[in-house]
Design goal:
single chain, 902 residues, alpha+beta, Arp2/3 complex 21 kDa subunit ARPC3, Beta-Lactamase, 4 domains, 7-stranded mixed sheet, 5-stranded antiparallel sheet, 25 strands
């Protein structure tokens, strides 16, 4: 099984490396073999560090298969591929050994120094072997400029270490190994590394492509003038031939001297031609005469001759001949005089094509008679026909020719500047090829241009020269790789640190969350305890206050002694102020918890304001302070809102004014105006008190804040009144503001927005009118049977006395259980239910009553000192809508009795 696994690793490593080599080969530098984008090395090293020597075998086999495919390596001896394969494989081993020798494994990824050292050893240091190897191999086997050799070597080095730095760690993060400690959430670092590698490759690819495109364009631009010059030369040659055509058509007889003179005139010295000749058409009958004139002209025996493989021989008899009669210059071309081109192995076919086409025709490349040691000659033929006759063999006069040696023709065009850019090869017709001696096909950059050479289609193939190849070296792109690689490493390290930090932070957050959860639980318990405490405090305060206020009210009704009535009035006012203070403390706690809600009842602001002034009149009288109350008619109209909270605002503002006004007066200016469906109440409390400093006014409405620290000592107070007033104003969709001057007085302005209430007969009844209700209304409830469920004996006496004053008796139950026992034998018309009682509380008893089909019709009114948001919600679920808050007045009882009277 182990051997099979190793074979599988060898196979996997070989296939993976081979495919990555094919991928990297798409981005080779123009010189071949090396590429900056070379993921094969980084992946191979990562696999080797994980799986060991089987990976080396796979990589070596892959290299043996892929290296011969490279054009540069293929041009070198076979052993070079083996040398490079061995050294590239050994490079991986060197990288591993460097890590083991100079690093403490496993590497701690949380330590930047260890990561950087690991990357430097496996990357730039170890990969120097590959770059140095290819440099030395190319230096030994190829004659390339040093700059080119260095560029290929550096490219190999950069491509290897770039892939190692960004790809090798990916494998070490994925699987357990001895080199790197397993990182938590390594996927983030892996994604970052691959992303950075991809981005750098993309940027390099775009930059390199742009650079190569620019160089290719520069190369192409360098060939344009050469092509243009070839076409220009061809046009010049055509002009030669056309000029000779006109000359021969215009003259009956052209002598050798005239031909030479005319030719020398038209010839352009910049276009190097081997010869220009005249070839007349000689019939078989005129041959003897022609040969005689030719011998006379050249003063030596000359015959019409033809060229054979054995040399020249006298032409046999044939219908016509096309011998070369004149040629210019003569000295170096005398050998061709008398040569019959119609039977020439190369020219003969071209002659026929020219006659048929009646146009220029060029021969294939062949060795000229004048230059037998070179095969670079071509001849251009142009037929001349008799003037004013249709062109045909019958009207043919002869041919003019231009003899060219391609090397002689093209060398002047191939200047030193062009030699530094390209080499070339010209091909035309069928297999005619002329190459410059330095031409190498597909040498770095190639460019082909199609052109027409007289009657044949041709191609000029350009290939970059060794000198131009130096321009293809692009050191700037290495900066992209180096900077990108550095940024990539920084990004990966940053991600690692972030992940490590997040992991540590998660632990701390988890611990802190657990601690906060526990503390939150403790706070909830503490808050519940606080709420329970406040509920108990409220109950414990209100219960005795209920007795005090109740007995005070009862005593006031039962005595006519003016002194006693005065005392009782003072007790009542003091009780009201104490109740207001208790309400402030409890309301502030509710506000902090967001549990303060407003009731909605119908009341008249003017009546409530008057009652508050009456409540505080004794305090004002003690200080000889006059309270003025001014209001408009609208202020007497009814509104819907929380009467108790409205009253609380007024008590706090007036009490505050009385407290800080040693002498003088207090004035209330109250106004009301309708705004859509609301009534906008504006209440101004103006005093002539001590005033407030400007800097103290900003914090005046903060909880527990007073103008100065000495204020509490001199004037008393909790410091909650104005804070509560502000919160109540906000709840009533209003606001409070102050204008004050120290030593002059203060003006507090409250604006409240309450709902408009349309008055009905019942709603027009005032509290005083309720006290003096008609006998008919009283008769409605005097027959009612009342059960009072109350555990406090004093409160039982108070409620009993109030009911007796209203003409009613009542029965008592000390707790909810006694109430249920009572209801088994009797059914009252209404139950006044306390909430906090021993044995069974009021809500439990109410639930039993409402669930009993025989009892659920009985009206229940909560009579308790503990009436908050939760109590109201719980009561609503039971269908209980009315509450009487302790402490209460007799009128509160009477209103409820009137409501439920049958």
């Amino acid at each position: 099984m182990g051997n099979l696994n190793k074979l599988a690793i060898v196979f996997f490593a070989c296939i993976t490396h081979f495919l990555l080599v094919q991928f990297g080969s798409q981005f080779l530098v123009p010189f071949g073999y090396a590429s900056v984008i070379w993921p094969a090395t980084g992946v191979a090293l990562g696999l080797y560090l994980l799986k060991g020597w089987p990976v080396l075998v796979g990589v070596f086999v892959s290299l043996l298969l892929s290296l011969p495919q490279d054009s540069l390596i293929a041009s070198l001896p076979t052993e070079v591929a083996y040398i490079l394969a061995v050294l590239s494989t050994v490079q991986l081993v060197v990288s591993r050994q460097l890590v083991l020798l100079f690093s403490q494994v496993p590497i701690r990824i949380s330590v930047p120094f260890e990561i950087i050292k690991f990357l430097l050893l496996t990357g730039p240091v170890a990969m120097l072997l590959g770059g140095a190897t290819i440099y030395l191999v190319l230096f030994y086997y190829l004659e390339l400029p040093q700059q080119t050799l260095l560029y290929v070597g550096v490219t190999k080095w950069v491509g290897d270490f770039f892939s190692v730095v960004l790809l090798t760690p990916v494998f070490l993060f994925l699987y357990p190994n001895i080199f790197v400690k397993k990182a938590r959430k390594a996927s983030a670092a892996i994604i970052t590394s691959l992303f950075c590698f991809s981005i750098i490759c993309f940027v390099y690819f775009v930059s390199s492509n742009n650079f190569n495109r620019d160089q290719k364009q520069q190369f192409v631009n360098g060939t344009v003038s050469f092509v243009e010059q070839i076409n220009s030369t061809q046009s010049t040659i055509k002009l030669y031939l056309k000029a000779l055509e006109a000359y021969f058509q215009a003259s009956e007889q052209v002598t050798k001297e005239e031909f030479s003179a005319f030719t020398s005139i038209i010839q352009n010295t910049e276009v190097r031609v081997r010869a220009i000749g005249w070839i007349p058409l000689i019939t078989k009958q005129a041959r003897t005469q022609f040969e005689s004139s030719m011998q006379k002209l050249y003063a030596k025996p000359v015959h019409i001759k033809q060229q054979t493989s054995a040399g020249f021989k006298k032409s046999p008899q044939q219908p016509y001949y096309l011998p070369i009669y004149y040629t210019y210059p003569l000295d170096e071309n005398q050998a061709v005089i008398g040569l019959d081109v119609s039977t020439h192995p190369f020219a003969g076919q071209t002659i026929k094509q020219a006659i048929v086409a009646k146009n220029f025709a060029v021969t294939d490349i062949f060795a000229l008679v004048q230059q037998q040691d070179k095969t670079d000659g071509v001849v251009v033929y142009y037929p001349i026909f008799k003037k004013a006759t249709p062109p045909s063999l019958a009207s043919l006069i002869g041919f003019v020719e231009v003899v060219l040696e391609l090397e002689l023709l093209l060398d002047p065009m191939y200047t030193a500047e062009r030699e530094g850019i390209f080499t070339y090869q010209i091909s035309f017709g069928d297999g005619n090829v002329f190459s410059h001696p330095s031409y190498e096909p597909e040498h770095f950059i190639a460019h082909n241009v199609a052109f027409t050479l007289f009657d044949k289609q041709g191609v000029i193939r350009f290939s970059s020269s060794d000198s131009f190849a130096v321009n293809l070296i692009n050191w700037v792109d290495f900066i992209i790789v180096f900077v990108g690689c550095l940024l990539g490493v920084i990004c990966v390290m940053f991600v690692f640190f972030i992940v490590s930090f997040n992991t540590s932070l998660e632990k701390k957050v988890k611990a802190s969350t657990h601690e906060l959860t526990e503390k939150n639980h403790e706070l909830i318990l503490a808050n519940d305890a606080k709420n329970l405490f406040l509920a108990n405090v409220s109950h414990e305060y209100r219960t005795p206050l209920n007795a005090i206020i109740g007995f005070t009210e009862l005593a006031s009704k039962e005595t006519e002694d003016h002194i006693a009535l005065d005392y009782l009035a003072r007790i009542s006012d003091a009780s009201a102020i104490l109740l207001s203070t208790v309400n402030d403390v409890l309301d502030f706690s509710k506000m902090q918890a967001g549990q303060l809600d407003l009731d909605s009842k119908v009341f008249k602001p003017e009546e409530v304001t008057a009652s508050v002034i009456g409540m505080l009149s004794h305090l004002a009288a003690e200080k000889s302070i006059k309270i003025e109350f001014n209001h408009d008619e609208q202020y007497s109209k009814q509104v819907e809102g929380d009467e108790l909270r409205f009253k609380q605002i007024l008590i706090n503002l007036l009490n505050n004014a009385l407290k800080f006004t040693p002498k003088g007066s207090i004035r209330l200016d109250c106004h009301c105006r309708d705004q859509d469906d609301d009534r906008l109440l504006t209440i101004k409390v103006i005093d002539t008190g001590i005033g407030i400093k400007a800097e103290d006014q900003q914090r005046l409405f903060n909880a527990f804040a007073q103008a100065q620290s000495s204020t509490t000592r001199n004037y008393g107070g909790t410091g909650l009144g104005l804070s509560i007033v502000k919160q109540l104003c906000i709840l009533m969709r209003g606001e409070i503001s102050v204008v004050s001057q120290e030593g002059v007085g203060s003006e507090f302005t409250v604006v409240l927005k309450l709902k408009i209430h349309n008055e009905t007969e019942y709603s027009k009844l005032s509290a005083e009118q309720m006290d003096s209700a008609s006998t008919e209304q009283c008769d409605h409830y005097k027959d009612m049977k009342v059960l009072v469920v109350e555990d406090n004996k004093i409160n039982q006496i108070v409620v009993q006395k109030h009911l007796l004053n209203l003409g009613l008796g009542c029965d008592f139950a000390n707790d909810g259980q006694q109430a249920l026992e009572y209801l088994k034998v009797q059914q009252p018309d209404i139950i006044l239910m306390d909430l906090q009682m021993p044995v069974m509380d009021g809500f439990t008893a109410s639930k039993h009553i409402k669930n009993d089909e025989n009892l659920k019709h009985i009206s229940i009114v909560i009579l308790s000192a503990s009436v908050g948001k939760e109590e109201k919600q719980q009561a609503a679920l039971l269908g209980i809508k009315d509450f009487i808050h302790k402490p209460y007045k007799q009128s509160d009882l009477e209103r409820v009795l009137v409501k439920y009277a049958h």
